[in-house]
Amino acid sequence: MSYAEEYARKLTTADQAVQVVKSGDWVDYGWCTGHPRVLDQALAKRAEELTDVKVRGGICLWKPAIAEVPGAAEHFTWNSWHMSGIERKMIAEGIAFYAPIRYSELPRYYREHIVHDDVAMFQVAPMDAHGYFNFGPNASHMKAVCETSKVVIVEVNQNMPRCCGGMEECVHISDVDMIVEGNNDPMGILPGGGAPTEVDAAVAKLIVEEIPNGACLQLGIGGMPNTVGSMIAESDLKDLGVHTEMYVDAFVDIAKAGKINGSRKNIDRGRQTYGFGAGTQKLYDYLHENPELMSAPVSYTNDIRSISELDNFISINNAVDVDLFGQVNAESAGVKHISGAGGQLDFVLGAYLSKGGKSFICCSSTFTDKKTGKLVSRIRPTLSTGSVVTDTRTNVHYLVTEYGKVCLKGLSTWERAEAIISIAHPEFRDELIAQAGAMHIWRASNKR
Fold first, then answer.
1. 320 is in an annotated binding site
2. Does residue 178 have a known ligand-binding role?
3. Is 188 annotated for ligand binding?
4. Do 166 and 268 meet the contact criterion of CB atoms below 8 Å apart?
5. Entry pTM
6. Is 49 noted as a catalytic residue in this protein?
7. Which one of the listed residues 155, 169, 245, 402 is annotated catalytic?
8. What is the pLDDT of residues 385-436, one digit of tens each?
9. 29 lies in a domain?
């Protein structure tokens, strides 16, 4: 049987395909831009027939149709590996819950630990001449999803970029049970944010001056990492490499500015390696069939052993707040969930193990409380009740605000408190000193 014949035999409608889902099933929606659309809509139409259907996904760029049905939480539960703003709202609606992960381990969770999916349904690029459906910019953990799911349904989208890979970037038609042709919706857009603020620029400048020629970059999501990327694109840096969890628009700008060639990478020389990507259409156009790019599972991209092999590895990530012990929270505001652990700790650890590597956690020193209009310090005596420790105090390398950067490695508690307070907003320093003293992590000889 030819691949074309097998395709025709497995081709079905979305309404027919979702009949395989039963009450109590675990259903996997894949990841980010690969979440299904017509299959999701078809499953939503069956809501009244179903109860306790548990769905896995993450980084929603649009609200799933199953979350829009009346009384959605009575029929579906959304379990997210990493939350977007859409999913944060779904928590408040009682339909969504976060699954704490170390992202590099996610493929192994599927293969060894979690309840296997009854059904997996997700978007893919059109089948190629060899019978493969590319996952697009979502290699992440998708091969493990396919290997462990009882039924695999692919939704073909002509607009899904075909992303060149190193491994585990596609599924063969022989491992697919049903094929549905979607509506060829445009790719989900993840906006790059507004123009950088003065604070973003100040933080970015402090980081960029630490980056040598030939460095290998990882950028997290958010305004500050994007600003760092823009500043790198305008700098005199050269021979840069990329090895990152998430490929974002900033990398496209840096590459088109001629700063990236990967010539000094110890592994995957000449290629930009990433676990998944999301951004604007500019990014998807750049990823499509670009042999310079290497799509790979997060068990490779985020593995500290891979990261540590790359000399001069530079990791740049955000934080929600930090305490005077050096604990970093990048996931919640108290018990209110914001994002997820992702691979931040993996890159913090891997960058420090890299020869010449540096890990930067950056944040603005303050934010304005939307309810009270008051200025609030992101540097706190202790993390607030319920806040999650994303990076433990022993693992933080550089901490950066608009007031400076400090290296926390090897510092005692009073030295840490002194260093961290030195980059707090001046308005809060005296108060933080008093609180540090009350916690016995401040020396009376310290001067500010």
1. yes
2. no
3. no
4. yes
5. 0.96
6. no
7. 245
8. 999 999 999 999 999 999 999 999 999 999 999 999 999 999 999 999 999 9
9. yes
